Amino acid sequence: MRKVLLLNITLFISIFAFAQSKSVQRTVVLEQFTTEDCGSCPYTLSAIEAHMDVNPNFVIITHHSGYGTDWLTIEESLAHREFYNAGGSTFTPAGMFDRHYNGLDNDNYQGIDPGPVFWDAPPQGTNRIDERTNIPAFVTVNIYGDHTSTSYNITVTGEFLDDFPQDIGVSLWITEDNITSETQSGASGTWTHRFTVRDAISSRLGDIITESTNTGDTFSKEYSFDVLDEWNLDELYLVAIIGNNDDSDVNNREIHNAKQIRLTNLQAVPVSVSEFYNRINIYPNPSDNKIIIDNAKNANIKIYDLTGKLVFSKNNINEYQSIDLSNLNKGTYFIKVNRNNTIETRKIIISR
Which domains does the chain have, with CATH numbers? Predict the structure, then answer.
């Protein structure tokens, strides 16, 4: 009887924990490396194209680099060769999937891959896509915007469904689909390039989110760009990427989720997202001696330690309020901001 009761309690806890978990379907980012001199690339790309009908939960970003260059090569694609992590040695066809490094020999060739990029000819590439799409994502991504003529203003927003302790960056790319090749090696007849990188609208590795990236936190980044005359507007796509931002280690830049949208399908920021711009910003976090509370004019704040002890309070704060934390020990605290009878709680970390 006791064993049955214990089993039921354990089962209840497990079901409850699962029910409380929150995740979304992952959109995998395949960054393909190719050039018109690559004779094996058309075969590999055709297999990946066919896989879209089987698994639609991935997007392609094509960098024209890795085996020489061609007329579609841009500076960011050349810099992206660092992801091979092989001392300057590159090859095509090649791909990386969510920039994730697993320390394995994914292509069964010459041992463990030194970086996220490997020879992704079938079935290695399609297998990797399926593997990654089966992993849930814990951050949402949305793209909104408006434009005047050929000038576009873009907003990338999202919400963290789990804690993300390291630096997280937002990057925004523009790709063009169905570009007719000039002299594609290994292709018969007319060949079209798929989802070719036209520009990195953001910094190449992503713009770091300076606000908190814990469960329930949201983010927003704004970008602007002009559509160039040589681009086909009807074939342009925006791809927003949320991932680790590590300047020193190419094997620690995993993408956590992404969003792709055709530029002609771009929609304006809805009211619910507009309200997001009124959110309270607390930074830097972690902090050493002080924090700034922005956009919380006339709010009342209270800071508690992990035992629930009140360690700081202030009423009717300014629009841009600086709070001195130098008298507090390093560690984790919770700040409650009461604004218009709505209480928002954030976790802050003091590190010295």
Answer: 28-274 (2.60.40.10), 280-350 (2.60.40.3080)
